[in-house]
Specification:
Radius of gyration: 35 Å
Number of strands: 24
Structural class: alpha/beta
Strand order of the largest sheet: 17-16-15-18-23-19-24
Distance between the termini: 73 Å
Number of helices: 19
Shape: globular
Helix content: 25-40%
Largest sheet: 7 strands, mixed
Strand content: 5-15%
Amino acid sequence: MVRLSMCSSGKYSLRGPALIPRMKTKHRIYYITLFSVVLLGLIATGMFQFWPHSIESTADWSLDRRSMHDAPLIQLPVSNPIPERGDLSCRMHTCFDVYRCGYNPKNRIKVYIYPLQRFVDEGGVPISSTGLSREYNDLLSTISDSEFYTDDVTRACLFVPSIDVLNQNSLRIRETAQALAMLPRWDKGMNHLLFNMLPGGPPDYNTALDVPRDRALLAGGGFSTWTYRQGYDVSIPVYSPLSADVELPERHHHRPQRFTLPRRYFILSSQTAIHREYRAELERLKEENGEALLLLDKCSNLSQGVASARKRCYKGQVFDYPQILQESSFCVVLRGARLGQATLSDVLQAGCVPIILADSYILPFSEVLDWKRASVVIPEEKLPEMYTILKSIPHRQVEEMQRQACWFWDAYFSSMKAIGMTTLQIINDRIYPYAARTYEQWNNPPVVKWSSVNSPLFLPLIPPRSPGFTAVVLTYDRIESLFRVITEISKVPSLAKLLVVWNNQNKSPPEDSLWPKIAAPLKVVRTKENKLSNRFFPYDEIETEAVLAIDDDIIMLTSDELQFGYEVRERIPYRLVGYPGRLHLWDHEMGKWKYESEWTNEVSMVLTGAAFYHKYFNYLYTYKMPGDIKNWVDAHMNCEDIAINFLVANITGKAPIKVTPRKKFKCPECTAIDGLSLDQTHMVERSECINKFASVFGTMPLKVVEHRADPVLYKDDFPEKLKSFPNIGSL
């Protein structure tokens, strides 16, 4: 500071003009040198970013590099090492280096594809008789076009060889193994993925690829329980080019009527290479059940030029294949020489429920797919009982299985792209389990957006998209009370968003300028029909996990009561949290259940005129409500609150939580006479609801408790200003 003050003194004016030129001359070389160094550094950085980091990373898997004719020729010396047979004890934590994958914001693995090379032995004979198949080329193209792909080998978590081992019949086993061992990053197969659909060969037909592969992961078609390394390998389907090339005339599984129409046959068998013992048993079943079972075989009397693969015959009658599969409710999928059969894909495409008779077979993608929803698995020894077993399945369940089978094919079987992406997603879910797809995402058609919700029955692995709660107000035309409700709710500190469900199709909502001005976002959703179930629809606008369902006339709840209810739900997220409680009782004289609204200390339900719950239950109410309960509620315009109490109690096995002393919602607009008349009819209808719902559920899931949650110091003689929730209402 002293020197600065000296520079600004009077001496500066005498010597300054003489010093400035000297400083420029003295430091000119320094500044030029510094500028040059910085410029060279920028140029070097740019070159490093765009220059290939290694020889391997220059081999981008682009369209012009997929021809085997242009691939470099690699000769395999006879003395080249051969990998180990394969470690059956391998698991993700022992044979896979997850640290290669590291952390990334997208929670996505990076996959590197080796450049194409033509491997030949010392005599110039290729290791494969087919080279690169169309199916494997499609698979590699899919990976290279996906978000999993990287052309930087140093960033890769998973390595996919460009050596086609889909069909073992076309491979020379020893030479293929030597080629794998020559890969630059092989490292005993660590973090390498091989795709194989046709394993084994005569006479034993092993259920896993015979090529020695060290610790490499195997995505295989036809695994048995003896060769499948659970949680490490991935069981994939045997791709059917036939079903992919044929467009079935009525393949529209989004049309419900397709699955409700009767089908000509009950059971159909279309495989041509069935073992004679199985065929004899099927013929016996055919004799017993007549036209209900169609037993097809290959055709021997086709005209020249007709593709035999697309025809099946029965006693001289010719059927188009796979179109004929659509005419049956169930289709037989028997083991052949290999466990995995392409017939499974054909059957799923046709929306025919597969009957799988292949003991020890690991079904495709069974790690994530619930095959009980789309197939019937029968032990081979119970083939004689097949008809009886299938007849015991309710028709409605068969229709659901047909829909699920069709959707499985579309999502996971329909192309090499679908198979490849599913395989990588399964491996990705293992490496990033906290961001993995849920059961619902894997097994429910995408009409249900399960990706936006987590089940409250399990500990959350990632935080919700938005804190606080979303208030969902169901309204019809009570504008004045609606605006009062909105104003009161807006005072609650934890309110994140307010969603008004406008249930009146004959009247438009008020103009934007008329709505109350509140700090939280306010959104109005107009419904297509006036249904009570619209209250529990999983709207995209609901980004919080906590939801407050509230009627447009509940103006008596204070902001403290609402905030306290929200905080109770945060601590017990899987329970319904409400204010007035209600009870169900067994009427011994009438022999049925009765709805009770007397002011007792016992509760088994809370009214959803104002109740907090997890948004997960919106999805269950809309898409998984048993039987016809949802339609029944909408038809009677009553009991939606009882229905969701049944649903939550059935899922959790727990009673709701009643908070604060309030036991009744008073309707300020109802007269005493109207209220009494309304109440009598109301009680009868709600008792009928309880009996109806108990019948559909097949049990009484509601639980009775004597419990109420109140704030700390609620009754204590304590200064109000020191209480967290001073304004708690009375009865």
